[in-house]
Amino acid sequence: TRSTRPQRLLGAVQKSATRGDPCSVVNAIDQFCRHTEWAMNVGDEKGCILDSVVSEVNPATVLELGTYCGYSTVRIARLLPPHAKLITLEFNPDFAAIARQVIAWAGMEEKVHLVEGASGEWIPKIKEQFGVKALDLVFLDHWKDQYLPDTKLIEECGLLRKGSVLLADNVIFPGAPQYLEYVRSSQQYESQYFKSHLEYTKVEDGLEKSVFLG
Ligand SMILES: Cn1cnc(CNC(=O)c2cc(-c3ccc(F)cc3)cc(O)c2O)c1
Ligand SMILES: [Mg+2]
User: Fold this and answer.
1) Residue of 141, 150, 205, 208 marked active site
2) What is the pLDDT of residue 5?
3) Catalytic residue at 136?
4) What number does the ligand 1 atom closest to the CA of 141 have?
5) Stretch 171-181: mean pLDDT, rounded?
6) Please, what is the average pLDDT of the chain?
7) 6-14 — which CB contacts under 8 Å span 24+ positions?
8) pLDDT at 1 exceeding the cut of 90
9) Are the C-beta atoms of 124 and 151 separated by less than 8 Å?
10) CA neighbours within 13 Å on the CB side: how many for 211?
11) For site-directed labelling of 137, which of 51, 97, 113, 188 has its Cα 20 to 30 A away?
């Protein structure tokens, strides 16, 4: 039977990237998606903005919502100090299976906990399961209509501290209007929009960075 897009993306990584070299994995995926087959990774243009936010926050604990094939997981993990932890949640088991292999190819397994399941079910378990006191950075890249309910759940679970950063992909396209309205109007957040483009296209999109004020 015909392979899936994530399977073809993994094949491109295994063919073109060097085991243990996260930058070569990121570059192999970008090459594949730009020249062979588009896929919904954050991509190279928005990825550079992601890199700058990760470097600025220098997080000990990161939560990623929406792993997909692990592109942003590897992109973030490569910038983390040795004992930092990245917890990434993926609902789709087929995506999770591919992401595990991409993360392993990049040699990032030590820094990454990939959890298969629904964010709404797993967010309340993070503190006890992973011994997390607070999240320094949250990267939202899962179902766009889940950004707002999951942000409220993260707040209710006491997972944010003064200075915690939320970084949301696709706030313009496909769009997360209710989320944008919330973080931009809330007294509890200082929000900033980073204008960019939908991965591998000329369509406008961007990232919204929101600092929790406590
Ligand atoms: C099925 N599924 C599992 N996880 C998710 C969450 N991600 C997205 O939905 C997502 C979608 C797009 C996109 C799709 C079609 C299109 F024409 C243009 C853009 C881009 C992204 O960067 C995304 O993160 C979806
Ligand atoms: Mg996205």
Assistant:
1) 141
2) 98
3) no
4) 24
5) 98
6) 98
7) 6/39, 6/68, 6/69, 6/94, 6/95, 6/98, 7/98, 8/32, 8/36, 8/37, 9/33, 9/37, 9/39, 9/69, 9/98, 9/102, 10/69, 10/98, 10/101, 10/102, 12/36, 13/102, 13/105, 14/105
8) no
9) no
10) 9
11) 97
